[in-house]
UniProtKB/TrEMBL annotation:
Pfam families: HATPase_c, HisKA, HisKA_7TM. It comes from the Archaea. Signal peptide: none annotated. Keywords: Kinase, Membrane, Phosphoprotein, Transferase, Transmembrane, Transmembrane helix, Two-component regulatory system. It catalyses: ATP + protein L-histidine = ADP + protein N-phospho-L-histidine. The chain crosses the membrane at residues 60-79, 91-109, 138-161, 173-194. Its EC number is 2.7.13.3. This is histidine kinase. One of its GO terms (biological process) is phosphorelay signal transduction system. GO terms for molecular function: protein histidine kinase activity. The keyword Transport does not apply. The keyword Kinase applies. The lineage of its organism: Archaea, Methanobacteriati, Methanobacteriota, Stenosarchaea group, Halobacteria.
Length: 538
């Protein structure tokens, strides 16, 4: 009896440990199993120590209930551990529990002695023993349970064969633990005990429970690998999404949260979360997402790739999607496409003009055609300078510093042939930016104001808490032409490259600024730059 008491105390301790250390996988099933064992042990001890024989039949019914419950919970534990498709199937689970419930009802009612024919009560070394003679109904139930035991052992064995090294060691330990538990029931049923009526099953369950505890807590076989994988995934800079069956979101890393995935999105369908995601994966396309505070960050471009998640038995359980951030590559490709378009179209025109006029030149005194050819070559040089500026604009934000706005704007003004036009600028303002690129931005704005208006023109720079404004008092831009004003190749000035305002937008985008155009108060043009870091110069 003392061994039963020790075993009961041990499994009760394991149940408490499982309750307060439920962070590892299958900890809940382990706690339930050990709790069932503890209740079995308590009911066994209550039979042994009852001061009267009157309640022994009822106490033994409780003992039968909890021992049978422990058998079912052991099967459930293995099912959850192996994630067996068979044992985790709802219909199989219902069948298992219905069988257990039917056996309990059969024992309590015992119609036609189907559960037991007799319950013999004896005394042995100061303890009470109840010795049942099982009826045919209980024999059928034992066959039912041991059929599940055979299936469970088979599933565990196959799991061991398929498992990797660390899982194999842990699976073998759980296999041994389950074998010890089942062995205890066999010993009782075949009478392999010191005295008929003595049940040592709780001792076998205590040994098995200890082995399982070692597997899932002492060596953390079940917890270490998933935690390590989660830690690695959380350090990945690309968004990672894990979808379960029916494409429901189960997990997202920190990078995914940064693009707008929220804990409330759990169980959201993949297509609802990111429209076009599945098509992009299937076709190898990219998707555009909004996220972040600045202009550059507000639209990011991602190239999603999916990998199916397959369990130990080859059954597809979901998929993991890695959203590779290809924003910079996408922008470089855009600039390359624009570059190719300009080279193939805009540079070819002045080259053809120069070639034509050189061929038309008759002799040394025929300078008119040569002058036209020189003008065409000058235009080509201007285009090349603009193309170089475009190619460098994307890297402006990498080298930013406090830049005196007045000094930079004045240097830009001096580099442009402004004639009698004038510039009005604030004198005590700093702009956190790439100085050379901002000077290039101002040069293109000033050149645009001078070349597209009758001189003289007054250009004014003003600042506000979120950026700055560049205005002129010229004739303005017709409203129907403002939408495409930043497109490459758009120009209303004779001989213009059409790249000036495009360069302005590229430099602004590289700094994370937004730029818009509208009519100024003087009926001229007003360019507004927002999201810029403006401060007072020291």
């Amino acid at each position: 009896m003392s061994a039963v008491a020790v075993g009961t105390a041990l499994v009760a301790s394991l149940a408490v440990y499982g309750e307060y250390n439920a962070s590892v996988p299958v900890a809940t099933e382990f706690r339930n199993l050990e709790l069932g064992c503890a209740l079995w042990g308590i009911s066994e001890l209550s039979v042994y120590l009852s001061p009267s024989t009157a309640p022994l039949a009822e106490l033994y019914t409780l003992r039968f209930l909890f021992s049978g419950l422990t058998a079912i919970l052991a099967i459930v534990f293995v099912a959850e551990y192996t994630q067996s498709e068979l044992l985790t199937r709802p219909s199989v689970r219902r069948f298992l529990w219905v069988g257990f419930g039917a056996a309990m009802v059969l024992w309590i009612t015992n119609p036609m002695d189907l559960a037991y024919t007799t319950l013999t009560i004896e005394s042995f070394q100061g303890i009470n023993l109840v010795i049942p003679t099982f009826g045919p109904g209980l024999v059928v139930y034992f066959v039912f349970v041991y059929g599940f035991y055979v299936a469970t052992f088979t599933i565990l064995g196959l799991f061991i064969l398929d498992a990797t090294n660390v899982y194999r060691k842990q699976a073998v330990l759980i296999f041994v633990a389950f074998f010890v538990v089942v062995a205890g029931t066999i010993v009782f049923l075949v009478g392999g005990v010191p005295r008929e009526g003595v049940d040592l099953g709780i001792i076998f369950n205590a040994l098995g429970g200890g082995a399982i505890w070692v597997a899932i807590y002492r060596y953390e076989f079940l917890a270490v690998v998933p935690l390590a994988k989660e830690a690695i995934v959380d350090t990945v800079t690309d968004p990672v999404l894990v979808f379960g069956q029916e494409s429901r979101l189960l997990y997202s890393n920190a990078a995914a949260d940064a693009i707008g995935v929220d804990i409330e999105d759990r169980n959201t369908d993949a297509e609802d979360l990111f429209p076009g995601l599945e098509a992009a994966i299937a076709n190898g396309d990219v998707i555009h997402l909004q996220g972040g505070d600045s202009t550059v960050e507000r639209e990011r471009v991602f190239e999603p790739a999916a990998e199916e998640l397959v369990d130990h038995h080859g059954v597809e359980r979901g998929q993991v999607i890695v959203m590779r951030d290809v924003t910079e590559r996408y922008r470089r490709e855009q600039r390359l496409d624009e570059f190719a378009s300009i080279v193939s179209h805009d540079l070819r025109n002045p080259l053809n003009i120069a070639s034509l006029h050189i061929n038309l030149a008759d002799g040394e005194d025929d300078t008119e055609h040569l002058d036209d050819a020189e003008d065409a070559l000058d235009r080509m040089e201007e285009l090349i300078d603009d193309l170089l500026t475009i190619s460098q604009a994307g890297y402006a934000s990498a080298e930013t510093e406090p830049t005196p706005l007045a000094q930079t704007a004045r240097a830009a003004w001096d580099n442009v042939d402004t004639g009698d036009s004038s510039l009005e600028i604030p004198t005590n303002t700093n702009l956190h930016a790439n100085r050379s690129q901002v000077q290039e931005l101002f040069e293109n704005l000033f050149r645009n104001a001078v070349e597209h208006n009758e001189p003289p023109v007054t250009v004014r720079i003003d600042t506000h808490e979120d950026g700055f404004v560049v205005t002129d008092d010229g004739t303005g831009i017709p409203e129907d032409r403002r939408d495409g004003i930043f497109d490459p190749g758009v120009s209303s000035a004779e001989g213009g490259t059409g790249l000036g305002l495009y360069i302005v937008q590229q430099i602004a985008n590289a700094h994370g600024w937004t730029v818009s155009v509208r009519e100024s108060e003087d009926s001229g043009v007003e360019f507004t730059f927002e999201d810029a870091d403006i401060g007072v110069a020291p």
